[in-house]
Specification:
246 residues; mainly alpha; 66% helix; globular; disordered N terminus
Length: 246
């Protein structure tokens, strides 16, 4: 009797990557608490970790062996980002008074396409990456974290491929993505809060890259596709809290 063909094993979870995603979600929630209780504005400092860690998670997912060998664009990943960018826009505008940009997911979707084009600079991925880069450049005024934010996943992918030398690229892009002239003017005058924010922006990429290289000895709950619901969901939750506890 011939031996049965073994079923393909599922890839093991990367505990460090799951922890990175949890920390990104936590820092995002802390950052948005200031929209409910303005005296908590100082949470803007740890909140600067969220976007770089989300960008690093995109790069780490693309860099996984099973993803890196695929020839096509990660359509499922892109579809979830684009779909929830539409779902989250209304809750985002309920929470944030007079927002100056769209929610963060369009930036991450463009960042995914640009990083994917960098990973496979030929064929479909290259052209979609170039189109995404052009869209990000044109839509810079309306994108949260702007063109620099859309480029950040690609610089993280580059840093993962060349860990000894390329770490400076995401650090510089993280600072540029958070550039706001009045705030940087405060830093030039030596204001401690402004410098704390700049330090948080600069250290977030370094912390994330360090964390991904740690062999964690304990299990971390997996963040699967259901976690996309947390993005619009936490906006609605915070809006409800603000209504009940003004």
């Amino acid at each position: 009797m011939p031996n049965a063909t073994p079923a393909p094993s599922r890839p093991t979870r990367d505990a460090a990557l799951d922890l990175l995603k949890w920390l990104a979600l936590l820092s995002m929630l802390l950052d948005h608490l200031r929209h409910v209780w303005p005296p908590l504005y100082w949470l803007y400092i740890p909140g600067r970790l969220a976007f770089p860690l989300f960008c690093l998670a995109i790069a780490a997912n693309l860099a996984r062996p099973q993803a890196a060998t695929r020839a096509g664009v990660p359509l499922a990943y892109l579809g979830w980002l684009l779909g929830f960018s539409l779902i989250a826009e209304w809750p985002y505008r309920l929470l944030v008074a007079e927002p100056r940009s769209l929610n963060v997911l369009p930036t991450l979707a463009l960042g995914l396409l640009i990083a994917s084009g960098l990973q496979h600079p030929q064929g479909q991925r290259r052209w979609l990456g170039l189109v995404a880069l052009l869209v990000a450049a044109v839509a810079n005024p309306w994108l949260m974290f702007g063109l620099a934010g859309a480029l950040l996943p690609a610089t993280f992918l580059y840093a993962l491929q060349r860990p000894a030398t390329a770490w400076i690229c995401p650090v510089l892009l993280s600072l540029l993505a958070n550039y706001w002239p009045p705030f940087y003017a405060d830093a030039a005058r030596g204001e401690p809060f402004a410098w704390a924010v700049l330090l948080s922006c600069a250290l977030a990429p370094l912390f994330g890259l360090w964390l991904l290289r740690q062999p964690l000895a304990w299990p971390v709950p997996a963040l699967r596709r259901w976690a996309y619901l947390l993005y619009p969901g936490h906006f609605l939750l915070l809006v409800g809290v603000r209504q009940w506890f003004p």
